Amino acid sequence: MFIGNRIRRTLTVAGAAAAALALWTLTGPVAGLDPSAETGGELRTIGAAPVIAGSLVAGLAGWGLLALLERIAARAGRIWTVLALVVLALSLGGPLGSAGDGTSMAVLIGMHLIVAAVLIPGLGRTAREARPVERPEVPVAHP
Fold first, then answer.
1. Half-sphere exposure of 15 (CA within 13 A, CB side)
2. Three-point CA angle 71, 73, 78, nearest 5°
3. How do residues 11-69 score in pLDDT, each as one tens digit?
4. Cβ contact 52:22 at 8 Å
5. What would the pLDDT profile of 10-23 be if each residue is shown by its tens digit?
6. 85-112 pLDDT tens trace
7. To the nearest 5 percent, what fractions of the chain are helix, strand and coil?
8. How far is residue 123's CA from residue 71's CA, in Å, rounded to a whole number?
9. Cα(2)–Cα(63) distance, rounded to whole angstroms?
C-alpha cells in the first residue's frame, strides 16, 4: 500500500514525540527519576509538555528544512542527514550543560537520541531529489 510522503512525515514527527514521551514516562512517573534541568538560573523538573513540544519543534523544523533542500539541492536527502546529525551533536550540549544531575543528564541525552533515532531515518527516507529547472530553449542564429 502506498503512503504519501506527507503522511509518512507526519507519522514520523508524531512518532518521535511519542518515543520521547514514552522514555519520559518510563524514567519519570514510572521509575521516579524526575529529570531536571537548569533554566533561567533555576532548577526545574522537566514535564511531559516540554518533552512533547521540544520533540514536535525538532521534527517540524527538520521537515521544513528537508522540504527546502528538496527544492534547491541535488542531493537533498544526503545533505539533510548530515545537517541533522550536526544538529543532534549540537543539541546534546543542552543536557550536558544544564542537567540537574547525572541521572537527569542521562535521561535527557536519551530523549535527544531517541528523537533523532526516529526523525533522521524516518524523514531521511522520504527525501526526494530536486527537480531540474527547465530552461526555455533559446534559438541560435546561424550565419
1. 15
2. 120
3. 999 999 999 999 999 998 899 888 999 988 899 999 999 999 999 999 999 999 999 99
4. no
5. 999 999 999 999 99
6. 999 999 999 999 998 899 999 999 999 9
7. 65, 5, 25
8. 16
9. 20
